Amino acid sequence: MGEIILKLKYDGTMPLECEVITPDTFEGKSKDEISALKVFRGPEELLLSDVFEISGDFTCSKENMVIKILGNAGNVKLIGYQMTAGKIIVEGDAGFHIGCEMKGGEIIVNGNAKHWAGREMEGGLLHIFGNAGDHVGSSYRGRWEGMLNGTIIVEGDAGYHVGDGLVNGKIIVKGNVGGFCGVKQNGGLIYVGGNAFRTLGVEMKGGTIVVCGKVMNFAPGFESAGIVRDFETDLTGYAIPNKLIVFKGDYAFYPKPKGKLYLSLSENSELLNDRMPAEERPIEFVGNALTVVLNTGSTIEEGKVIKGGKKYYPEYVKEAAYCEIHPDDYNLLGRPEKVKVISQDQRYSVVVYVKPSDDVLRRNAFIPRGVWANSIIDALSGSTGSPVYKGGIVYIEPSDDEVYHAEYIIDNIYKGESNGKSNI
Amino acid sequence: MTKMVVKGGTVYDPLNGIDGEVMDIFIKDGKIVECMSESELRDAKVLDVTGKVVMPGGVDSHTHVAGCKVNTGRVMCPENQYKSPMGKTHNTHSGSGDIVPSTYAQGYTYASMGYTTLFEAAVPPMAARHSHEEFKSLPIVDKAGYLLLGSNWFVMKYLKEGNIDKAAAYIAWALETTKTYGIKLVNPAGVENWKWGKNVHSLDDRALHFDVSAREMIENLAIINERFGLPMSIHLHANNLGHPGNWEITLDTMDVTKKIKPVVNKAGYDTGVKTKYSHDREQSVYMTHIQFHSFGGTSWKDFESKADVIAKHINKSDHIVMDSGSVAFGKAICMTGDGPGLYDIATMTGGKWANEDVELECGSGVTPFLYDHKNKVHSIQWAMGLELMLLTDPKKAIMTTDNPNAGPFMKYPVLIRWLMSRKAREDMMKECHKGASERTTLANIDKELSLYELATVTRATPAKAVGIGYRKGHLSPGADADITVYDISPDYNSNDYMAIEKAFKTAKYTIKDGEVITKEGRIIETPKGRTYYADVKVNNELQNEVIGDIKEWFRKYYSISFSNYPVPEKYLTNPTPLNINAR
């Protein structure tokens, strides 16, 4: 075993593109040749020796090579890009795209890794001892196949979009994961030691996801297939709860999906009641406010009004600043003319008119997608630039306040927000 | 005053009957000339191409290179873009993309393959401005677009009223207003029905609310086309694309225009260039991507090729020209004005899909596709594309992949390899699904295209079919000096098919308007190409009456105003109107 040590000299904020840091590129090169490798900072070309102090043993074959990166490499991108053998140890943090498209060998990150760690990986092991960013082991923009094989282990938490389009291989996150975990998964295994959040396994066709903690905002396309004991699963060697609920899905997208979810029974027992009809959703008050599920979407009438960007007209208020609720809920709230709709984190609110309607289920609310709905929707963009408009929790209470015009909301609330002022 | 002699090459010029003659070609001021005087020869640049093959510049008469659906294809598949970057050089723009490259990259790649003239096969009238904006950044090549009129409300309304004169006046107005070249029909009447979730499945099915059948649309537009004497015939994407068993409707469709006489009214732009065989078009219908319309069987299970029947029918009918839409295995992006057709494909593959409704005029669909040689249907389609090219008379056949529907245009050399080498086909057939040999006649075809025939299907026939023969597609004196030199010996060995593919992948030289544009794939000059469009003049009184109707419908139904609709000439690079007097 021979070690090549790269000690970081660079401390700028602009990321560096260092796809050359792999045993494959370093193999058979002298110190001078390695020093002369090109890296990019934006459009500017630098030498590897401008960025790192390079020392060590340069005689090894790639299989026996260990590349050690000292210092905080959080702004060094693409370490281990397409590597096939050998080992890379990152002592501090690692930047974007670490181990992406790697085919073999091993990468160890002792600090945190930024987004896209191990994306489209084809083999080998990526072990992150800190936390990882979004898109761990996922597919890149536009592709539907993510990781093809190999193993990723994250000792801490991981962000959104863990294992998008996973085809094969294992992703083990010992902490929590963000939303959209295992979207479009078609094989392989995702293990989550902590909690998962929103749209877990949506559009899943095959493969397995295990969540040992709690799942929030569970996706609707899964059907429960009973309760199993830990030894009845094929998950040997993982720390899993002793009773698990099995779900199959995603039936919302495929007629015969083979995707399997194992969720901890003790943390998620309420999910067993997922067949409970919506009108049976419990009546929950928080103070004066009723807890409901908020849906939004564009309406044709609204589209007609704002054709040509006419958002500042009174017609727009009429067509978009209202909240449809079921007549029973309407009665529960005391038949108010206007309601205040409060976001789940209770930081934002907006006042709109009420329309009782049979089209909405009990304990559900509909607000047309627009300026008013935007004020209370959390900005989980899922990297699409468009917030998730459906299925969040909000609280509604009767109100006598004024329903603001779009212009007022945009000028005072949106713009005010960006100036650091709070809107409530 | 540029002068050049292309010296010592072996020339293939089908429209002049030149089949492999060693001769010099003289160029003066961007045009080909018969000969040069001693003094002119002294300052002429000499390009020695001894032992190489010389052909007229390539003409692609059916490709999708500009417009909103092409752009949607790019946006929809970033995975095809980010892994194929093309660096900027001192005279070229950067670019990217392997299925639908960025606009500049398309121009460079086409030119380095020896193509100098492109016809964008589908321009939605309302989005013509977008198409022209992309044309503007499509360097080097000359180009023109076909206007989608097969499900147009105005045309259908006037035909329903039985007023073909008004329909004609509308089309004349639309061609000039959108600066486009000719009439294109996509799934006539079907695209309109798609707006109501329906389609048409026979020639006599009618467009809802307009009560015009697909047959009437084809027939009447062909009549209008020949009444004007437009340079090209109607360009027809028939109904029922991509459905097993559609060969029957294709046969019927081809005969709709049988009795219509082709007329070319070229007095307004004729250059008087003569060729040995007439370069005036002889067909009254151009059947496009016929491979997708030659499907036999009743379902994907008993799917088979009917390419031989279709080819036989074309061979005996003088009023038809076709382009093949041959499949090259690998990734493709299907994009067409046929919204319902693409919906069917997208539901089959479960892939990404985009659909567009172009208000009163047409629609479109886009979905990525993978032609897999292990797949039965795809293998049969591959064989069909080759059968059609090998069985049809080269004077009526044009080689295309319907870029990028059956494969990107960069795959043309692969297609040429299969067409020019029997061994290449046999080797491919061993690898692909057995359907290719069992359900088609390809295994029994010994024919290998010669260089003369290749020049016919990529130069002479397309130029003649779209009516650009007065300046392109041959090497007669007076023609544009668009010349391609390929680095292949005239007595090549057809068994060494990889050498054939390599030779056609990158032209040794591409010459456009008398300038060497590319040398072995390197871009030397990047001139701006011409943009051709048909400027048809009809009776003023009638035209004004029709414009009155158009204005009313703009007020009522369009989301944009009448005055924002026309594409002014300033959008065009080197605008070249074809003046047609139809008063």
Low-confidence spans of chain A: 418-424
Kindly state the percentage of residues in helix of chain B.
25-40%
* SS-derived structural category of chain B: alpha/beta
Strand ordering within the main sheet of chain A: 5-1-6-8-9-10-11-12-13-15-19-18-17
Radius of gyration of chain B: 23 Å
Strand-residue proportion of chain A? 25-35%
Given the helix and strand composition of chain A, which structural class is it?
A: alpha/beta
What is the β-strand count of chain A? 26
Largest beta-sheet characterization of chain A: 13 strands, mixed
Mean pLDDT of chain A: 89
Task: Provide the β-strand percentage band of chain B.
Answer: 15-25%
Shape of chain A: globular
Oligomer: heterodimer
Count of helical regions of chain A:
9
How far do the termini of chain B sit from each other?
Answer: 39 Å
The biggest sheet of chain B amounts to: 9 strands, mixed
Task: Return residue spans of chain B where pLDDT drops below 50 for at least 5 consecutive residues.
Answer: none
Description:
The complex is a heterodimer of chains A (424) and B (583). Chain A contains nine helices and 26 strands. By secondary structure, chain A is an alpha/beta fold. In chain A, a hairpin with a 5-residue loop joins strand 23 and strand 24. The termini of chain A are far apart. In chain B, 57% of the residues are buried. In chain B, strand 13, helix 10 and strand 14 form a beta-alpha-beta unit. The mean pLDDT of chain B is 94. Chain B has one domain. Chain B has 583 residues and is α/β, with parallel strands linked by helices. In chain B, the strands form five sheets. In chain B, strands 1, 2, 3, 4, 5, 19, 20, 21 and 22 form a nine-stranded mixed β-sheet that branches. An eight-stranded parallel β-sheet of chain B has the order 6-9-10-11-12-13-14-18, sandwiched between helices. Chain B starts with a strand and ends with a strand. In chain B, helix 9 runs parallel beside helix 10 and helix 10 packs parallel to helix 12. The chains are: A alpha/beta (424), B alpha/beta (583). The interface between A and B is small, with 6 and 9 residues. Chain A: Pfam families: Molydop_binding (PF01568). Chain A: Its EC number is 1.2.7.12. Chain A: This is formylmethanofuran dehydrogenase.
